[in-house]
């Protein structure tokens, strides 16, 4: 890491759902105690931070993104002492902890909302949320959960008014015009800072403020409030990551990354282009997207997810160009009936038709592109999903630890599980689980561990400069990452057929080249440097006067 660089620069972030990760007390529901007991695994795997989806008290109408108390822990997950134990254990392992910060809305069962609906019109208490007598206000704001809602307004009998909600009707939007709301949410930030968290993943950041005749996204007032959050964390005096979820085209997401605002933001356009590349076998659009993303915000400030706990968000043509959406829908394995709201509701492995080569290719790209690679729990195993469960639950099933009952996730009787463990053909937890894959040297899990180890030895991949290189093959993407004393060349073949091609390495002409993942020498760099990559193959080469010691290490830890 460069001198003085914040901890998140190029850090590998592991996203997990605490309810689905590991059950410590045998009630069928994952919890903080269970998660704490699995931190050794995450350290072994080699991730540097964990991001927990919401852990707060909630009626769970929206996976915990509907909160009734911002300053507490959901009783099924544990309590604040369990959170303290999790945090100190994680820090002992050198793992940072990022929590979700849901600013835009609360649960309708939050005491603030109950008080609002019973309070007088125009009172400060009522004004904690966004009310109207008229459900046609803000009509240009798209309905986001369009599978479940037809309007952003819901009539409330008690209040005798409509309230505004960008997500489910159970999630009324807070009214940021009200200074009391602003102060409360800044206090929430302070509360978790004092509990010792290392960062926040800011949910749904574009939607804080509303304005007539706009999509109610990314308004100047919203940015101003995010800057206040930044000031708050700066004042705290530690490196605290602010990473925003703005499902927007890169030019529209970029303002959140202004120097005085958020440190990072997900690049969902890049995610879609990664899938489109595999779906079409062409790297062209991916390269265009990378060039644009780096032009808009250079360096490592984009967070790079493949899949997450939501659907693979493709949108209606505003986010991702229609031809890219078409490519993905036509080329990725998805089966029937997997479209939810704005995208495909499947996990990574089934989308890739269970092909581990494509899993490695896509993660190999994440681990070598500039940014913060985000690994979704279970994707290191090629874990499957459970189609047919409600909403986004197909992607949220229990982590598979062992071949034993419930995949070792819980000792509870199966019907008590938070969600069923996957037994779908090809993805059965008796086969696809941590314990079995640890024992198999060639498993996907051991591959992830190995490549993450190699990556740690290559600081150029972490926060080096980024430059795309022309290749002579339409399926190949190639780039160079470099810091002062290290240059790493990457080439990847996104197609399901082998590719032989030339790279123009004129700037490095005459230098030695060594493939680092396999530890073998290649010919001296030249303007017409020949490479062959198998289907979905990729390689990392060190350029220059390179050390002969292979970076590769023992396959399996004993
Ligand atoms: C984005 C989260 O990722 C999603 O799961 C949630 O439903 C919405 N924000 C609303 O909070
Ligand atoms: Ca439990």
Could you give a quick summary of the protein structure above?
This protein has 558 residues and is α/β, with parallel strands linked by helices.
Question: Can you describe what's shown?
Answer:
This protein has three domains: 13-104 and 180-455, Alpha-Beta Barrel (TIM Barrel), CATH 3.20.20.80; 111-164, Oligo-1,6-glucosidase, Domain 2 (Oligo-1,6-glucosidase, domain 2); 464-554, Immunoglobulin-like (Sandwich), CATH 2.60.40. 27% of the residues lie in helices and 17% in strands. The chain is built from 16 helices and 22 strands. The strands form five sheets. It has an eight-stranded parallel beta barrel. Strand 8 (241-244), helix 8 and strand 9 (264-266) form a beta-alpha-beta unit. The chain is globular, with a radius of gyration of 24 Å. The two termini are 29 Å apart. It binds 1-deoxynojirimycin and calcium ion (CA). Residues 23-25, 27, 29, 31 line the site of calcium ion (CA). Residues 62-63, 65, 102, 167, 203-204, 245, 309-310 line the site of 1-deoxynojirimycin.
């Amino acid at each position: 890491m460069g001198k003085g660089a914040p901890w998140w620069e190029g850090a590998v972030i592991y996203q997990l759902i605490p309810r689905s990760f590991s059950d410590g007390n045998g009630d069928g529901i994952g919890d903080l105690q269970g998660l704490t007991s699995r931190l050794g695994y995450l350290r072994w795997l080699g991730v540097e931070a964990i991001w927990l989806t919401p852990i707060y008290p909630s009626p769970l109408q929206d996976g915990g993104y509907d909160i009734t108390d911002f300053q507490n822990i959901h009783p099924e997950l544990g309590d604040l002492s369990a959170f303290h134990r999790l945090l100190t254990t994680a820090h002992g392992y050198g793992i940072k902890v990022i929590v979700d910060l849901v600013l835009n809305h609360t649960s309708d069962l939050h005491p603030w909302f109950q008080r609002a609906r019973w309070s007088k019109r125009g009172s400060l208490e009522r004004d904690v949320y966004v009310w109207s007598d008229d459900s046609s206000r803000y009509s240009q704001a798209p309905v986001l959960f369009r599978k479940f809602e037809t309007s952003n307004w819901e009539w409330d009998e008690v209040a005798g008014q409509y309230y505004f909600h960008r997500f489910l009707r159970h999630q009324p939007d807070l009214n940021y015009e009200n200074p009391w709301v602003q102060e409360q949410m800044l206090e929430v930030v302070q509360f978790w800072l004092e509990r010792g968290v290392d960062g926040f993943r800011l949910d749904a950041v574009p939607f804080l403020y509303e304005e007539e005749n706009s999509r109610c996204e990314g308004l100047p007032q919203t940015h101003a409030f995010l800057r206040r959050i930044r000031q708050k964390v700066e004042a705290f005096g530690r490196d605290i990551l602010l990473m925003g979820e703005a499902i927007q085209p890169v030019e529209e997401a970029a303002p959140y990354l202004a120097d005085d605002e958020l440190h990072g933001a997900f690049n969902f356009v890049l995610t879609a282009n990664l899938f489109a590349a595999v779906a079409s076998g062409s790297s062209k659009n991916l390269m265009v997207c990378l060039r644009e993303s780096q032009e808009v915000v250079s360096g490592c400030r984009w967070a790079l997810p493949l899949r997450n706990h939501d659907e693979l968000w493709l949108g209606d043509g505003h986010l991702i160009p229609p031809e890219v959406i078409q490519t993905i829908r036509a080329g990725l394995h998805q089966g029937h009936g997997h479209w939810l709201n704005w995208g495909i509701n499947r996990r990574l492995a089934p989308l890739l038709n269970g092909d581990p080569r494509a899993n490695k290719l896509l993660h190999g790209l994440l681990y070598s592109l500039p940014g913060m690679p985000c690994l979704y729990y279970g994707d290191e195993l090629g874990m499957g999903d459970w189609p047919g469960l409600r909403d986004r639950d197909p992607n949220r099933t229990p982590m598979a630890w062992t071949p034993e009952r419930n995949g070792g996730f819980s000792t509870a009787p199966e019907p008590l599980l938070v969600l069923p463990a996957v037994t779908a053909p090809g993805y059965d937890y008796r086969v696809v689980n941590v314990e079995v894959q640890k024992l198999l040297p060639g498993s996907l899990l051991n591959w992830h561990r190995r490549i993450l180890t190699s990556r740690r030895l290559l600081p150029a991949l972490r926060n080096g400069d980024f430059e795309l290189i022309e290749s002579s093959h339409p399926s190949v993407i190639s780039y160079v990452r470099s810091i002062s004393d290290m240059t790493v060349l990457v080439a990847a073949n996104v197609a399901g057929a082998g590719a032989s091609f030339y790279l123009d390495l004129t700037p490095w002409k005459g230098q030695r080249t060594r493939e680092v993942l396999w530890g073998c020498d290649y010919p001296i760099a030249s303007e017409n440097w020949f490479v062959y990559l198998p289907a979905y193959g990729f390689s990392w080469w060190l350029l220059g006067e390179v050390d002969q010691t292979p970076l590769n290490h023992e396959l399996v830890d004993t």
